[in-house]
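Regression report. Comparing outputs from two consecutive submissions.

Submission 1:
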Amino acid sequence: MEECTCLCGLGSSRGCRCRQERQGPAETATAEEKPLEADAAALCCAGSGGIASPRPPPPPPHCSLQDLPVELLVEIFGLLPGTDLPSLALACTKFHHILHTDSIWRRRCWEEFGLRENLQNLETMGMSYREVYAKLFHPYRGILGLWQLDTEGYKTLLNVVVDGLLITGWTYGPCLNLHVDGPMQFKPSFRICLTERKSATVECMEGRHSRPHSRHIQIGKNRFSTQCNKTDHLKDLPTRLREDWARVLVQKDRLQYDCLTYRRLYLPPSHPDDLIRPGLFQGKYHRFGLMIAMLSFHGKYARVTKITGNFTQTLEIHLMRRIQLGDGKIFRNFNTLYRVVLEIDEQVIREQEDGTEESGGHGWQSPAQPSVGESGAVASEEQPVKFVLPVGVSSRHQNYPRTCRMCCYGVDTVTTCGSGCPWRFPGVFILFDENHFGFISLETKYFILFGRVQNTFQNVEAPSPQAFLKMLKNIQSRPV
């Protein structure tokens, strides 16, 4: 190929602009037609079965993630979930070495688990953030969140959280004389901690003697169990609970083991059309103290599910069967209120028998499918009405709200331990405000006030509405 000797830099004299300027118009045209003729000939040969064909475009320049600077890879890897990093370390030797950079694991510990521990504290223990993640957070991340004790006796709550370089399980301990607006009371049940250059150990924090002592945890899907061989745990329980727990902790012809199983709890999903924000509420059912219940919405119905205590109780609220309040006079005459609720209850039973009223599964409609937006909007726009307990209705709450927003028909269903036949109590659901509601059982002439739990919880979001509904059914079923 003839090279151009001028400084235009294009290389080939064929494409040299300087030479084209020196050529006449006829020579320039002839030179431009030659490559066109060659291209046409090549296409002609290709179409007639010849071996000539158009030249393919050049491939794009090769670019690999491995070619990026180490500093940039550290930033990229720090953005990935910690559960993906072990697989990434197997890709190549370079990634394996980079993933030993502790700043990556420090970011994962902070963003995934909220750990803000000082690096100096870790160095004192001879630990790195990578070891904390691999030995503590990763193996036990599945037990973080809310759990219900799964026994035939007394059910309670367990909240498992990250406490610095510990994972602690806090057991709900109801107090006898707390108001429903007070915070939930918890005491430590167990803790998982790291020791120098060793794997995490589980320590039991219950019992009066030998505390803490070794405890074993077995983790499954949406369930885990704990076990230790100390037998003095019952000494810490109130007298009223010892008999229930003894059936679980003390078994005939076997050693006394504290073997407890917990089932995962999710908080109910919320929707803008809900009557009020769903969640956990405290109610004082009897003299034994506060119990925890969960309020959730399911289309035309709301459900209050009791999740602590020694018997199963659910309150189903028919949001479309409202009771007219007027100026509040209906609460002053118990007989009038009783007749109104009894008429609605008889109508519901007839419709259930005829098949026109949904029964059995109607309360399980997905919370993500609201159908009471109109009722919720009406309730929020209504003016508060004066509320007083009807004469003859007893309650352990004298400091209840004195105004309410709306009332609906509801049914309280109670199943005690060892009883296969539930008791059914129709009554009145009373919405006071965003954080309080109540229920009057007309058969027992008893009023229960519920107040919203003010505690905040982490890792309690259900992965889907269907997962929440499945959980709600499970916590009301008998333990397996």
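Submission 2:
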Amino acid sequence: MSLLQKIAEIESEMARTQKNKATAHHLGLLKARLAKLKRELITPKGGSGGGPGEGFDVAKTGDARIGFVGFPSVGKSTLLSNLAGVYSEVAAYEFTTLTTVPGVIRYKGAKIQLLDLPGIIEGAKDGKGRGRQVIAVARTCNLILIVLDVLKPLGHKKLIEHELEGFGIRLNKEPPNIGFKRKDKGGINFTATCAQSELDGETVKSILSEYKIHNADLTLRSDATADDLIDVVEGNRVYIPCIYVLNKIDQISIEELDVIYKIPHCVPISAHHRWNFDDLLERIWDYLHLVRIALVWGSSVKHNPQKVGKDHVMEDEDVIQLVKK
């Protein structure tokens, strides 16, 4: 049985299983097995075909990196071109962007790298198309912009999130508040500092047993799920802020636009008409958590003024300017 068949079999069993306290233990075990298989799928054994592929080895430059992700022909390339003046082959049909195209913008003194990643299709995390390489680059980003066509169902949003989740990318989430430490002996020492609605000692031990972990200290400091525990054990998850960019608002009504503005983490725009770019750039700045720091004039720097970090050693009579967010 192939890896994909094993994954499909487990996902099918999970879909058939009712979620309740009686099945929590079994579902936790299935989730752990599924996570292990997906890890193996993402990082296959052996060296064949393991390279990043042409156009995907992009050097990280500047103060931050943003990845533009979305289904084909939703306007990613147009948005990037109008933001940074970078040409990426644009057409009114699907699958025109074949490689990662880097661009750079400067905003509030920060140099921000923009990557227009090829269109992601459902099943990319299963090795279809070039999705695996695309999301490998997405994992290195400081911020992800999921570009959506406002005229198409927000089901696209769910599909892309599912693809990213499959690669261990967690959007707009904090790492689980779980203490986990392996040890050589003593069994599983399980402690919860608050009430747990899903995990109990039996479920925890079964999940850890799937990873052949029989000695460890585990502390749950919040109401955790089996997925939270698996994420901590896997140890390869990345937690990235995300903005949902709803493009083509020139084709909807004002009333529909008012509804869109209430969706969390969303910014409506028209890439073609360059509408609402100011709001998008300001939201990007907020989500990157960038802080403009010191400019120094004086003998301690080569250029006047020069941007320096917090470890810079000042000289007598140097002048420093502090710039906050």
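Expected: both submissions complete independently.
Actual: both completed, but the second showed a warning that disappeared on reload.
Relevant detail on submission 2: The chain has three domains: 3-42+176-234, 64-173+238-288, 292-324.
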